[in-house]
Amino acid sequence: MSAAFDILLCLMILATAGIALFVRGAFAAIAFFIAFGNLLGLAWLALGAVNVALAEIAVGAGVTGVALILACSRLFELGDNLADVRTPLASRLGSAALCLGFTVMLAGVVLTIPPGDRLSKVVAPLLPGLGIENPVTGVLLAFRGYDTLLETFVLLGALVAAWSLTPDASRRLPPTTMVMTDPTSRIVAEAFTRLLAPAALIIAAYLVWVGSDLPGGAFQAGAVLAGALVVATLGGVVVLPRLDSLAARIALMVGPLTFLAIGLAGAALGGRFLAYPDGLEKTLIVTIEYALAISIAAGLALLAIGPPQPMPNNARADAR
Amino acid sequence: MLVEGGHVFAVTGAVLAGLGFYSFLVKRHPIRQLLAANVVGAGVFLMLGGLGRSPGGADPFAQALVITGIVIAVALSALGAAMVVRLAACGDKDEAPLGEKREGP
Fold this sequence. Notes:
The complex is a heterodimer. By secondary structure, chain A is mainly alpha-helical. Chain A has helices spanning 2-22, 26-46, 50-77, 89-112, 120-123, 127-130, 135-143, 145-163, 183-210, 218-234, 246-268, 281-305, 313-319. In chain A, 72% of the residues lie in helices and 0% in strands. Chain B has a single domain, classed as Helix Hairpins. Chain B has three helices and two strands. The chains are: A mainly alpha, B mainly alpha. At the A-B interface, helix 1, helix 2, helix 3, helix 4 and helix 7 of A face helix 1, helix 2, strand 1, strand 2 and helix 3 of B.
């Protein structure tokens, strides 16, 4: 029964991926990519990785989908019709042969590795010392804290890089007005935000808190908040900050800097960099996670929305 | 049994990576190529997850690695999308420096 479900799920994943990759229209491709991401989330559930399922659906499907759809609509406005240029038959055949060979080799290698969670036996005895029961949170914040710290700076770096693409003329604008122009849609988005925002806040706070012991954590919580922020922006409830806004910078930096400060404090107190003092592990990890959730939410939302666009003047007047 | 449960997902991941590479090669529009890069990444993650599966659950190290990977992938997509839009805004003026002011239409 379970095996049949797994196989069916994998076939659906492959089908949606195939459509997303090869359908003619770009918008249809992104729509199928979002469906693909959600099915992939189900696959992670089937694999018993609830932490990853949450992250995949919220970040992989949700935030990436928003970023790509916005990019497509901006390209349309700029006169790029996203047309599909046909590659010559010879290069398509060559590519197909290459990729087929690659896939067969990869699948062959994969089949020689027996599946198993060998590292969970290493992690499990170490968790009681942390006071944390979710092994994934333990790995992310304690055993591989270095990776996670750098990852939060990668997110920040990507945002700075994206913002640096802003044309000079729109440097003083907020990152796009983004408010829906159709009044009916806007009222729907606005009313929906008033219902959604409190719920999203509670879900995010809960996900961080519960992430110590059960699936959840800063990334999933940050993604939920980022989603709420994007919807709130569409409804005009939240006005996006300008690039030089101090509040936005504080929100973006609080997570990575808290993480870094606690990591350095660990080194200063005689331990190693990112080593937590005995007895304080859980307190410090939860503190870092709450700070990270804020920064991840702000970072993901602003990344998805993209840098300020040179907007026609009337659109800006409408948004006021 | 030769093929264990996790192998179904791992092989699906391998096929996803192959499909993604093919799409990356034959689709010329950069947005489609970003999409393809995302599918390749998802395939690699699924391989990691499938091979980390056991009756008791999933390997926490693989899970942590994949969560990190998902966040890096979204940073890549968003930055890539911003670059594609900026490139289109520069139009045919290939030689135009990025900082150049552009007048509205």
